[in-house]
Specification:
TIM Barrel; ten-stranded mixed β-sheet; two-stranded antiparallel ribbon
Length: about 325
Amino acid sequence: MKAFARHRRLRQNEAIRRMTRENHLSPADFIYPLFVVEGSGIKKEIPSMPGVFHYSLDRLGEELDEVAELGIPSVILFGVPEHKDACGSEAQAENGIVQQAIRRVKERQPHLYVMADTCLCQYTDHGHCGVVEEGKVQNDESLDLLVKTAVSQARAGADMIAPSNMMDGFVAAIRRGLDEAGFKEIPILSYAVKYASAFYGPFRDAAHSSPQFGDRRTYQMDPANSREALREAATDVEEGADMLMVKPGLAYMDIIRQLRDRFHLPVTVYNVSGEYSMVKAAAEKGWINERDVVLELLLGMKRAGAELILTYHAKEAARWLQEMT
């Protein structure tokens, strides 16, 4: 009888399992999202995202200290302004909420790497990611506003610009605008593959950015498509992106892998609000072990090919990983 393979030999105890483990999670893999609001004395939990809060600038420091202490190297900032208008003018304001938050992070925790989300949806009164004329989002007219926003964020001290608007040509326009403004060293993390997903609901609650009419399917991608994702990513690489993002993560592991195999730029995945909130809801019911499920999901994203994970689980995951070492 021919001997059969004994794969279990390498699973016999924790020591050999650790030695042969192919992928590893670390707090250094995480980017932590922060929602900053105007006002003072505000730390208010977002109802649809347990454990995630709106912070006013004067309360932001306590969160930054905790993030740094946990060994998470980077934050990405989302601003929620009081004033909104048709062109999202607060997005590019010198003292806009994100610009102020960038400066506050750099003062409090100068070693944290600060990414700035570059989009208009939370700044416009219509909730779309660009200029709207006659009920349609105008691509080229929106680019100028996005460039001004990116430059203002760089002037405030952002280490990386992360445009999430999905307008055609946005990477080329922002790269050119940053270069002309003297920010040639500022990299771009492109939301290269951003799907028109049902997983964004809690984020829109957090950012007050739900569209007031229609939807975003004319600029965000159809969840049915994968070849289109490669075209989008290839364009952003050609236009000067330094890193690529896939958003969401859980339902798009195949897309992460395809980008990882096709391109030589670092790949980031956004573990989005709906994915986070589903886990939280199931854990609250006692249906799952939250720690084990979260770490398994994040590890799956690493295995699929993501070098970095933008996740609301970052602080808890970092604590759990520290406890396990």
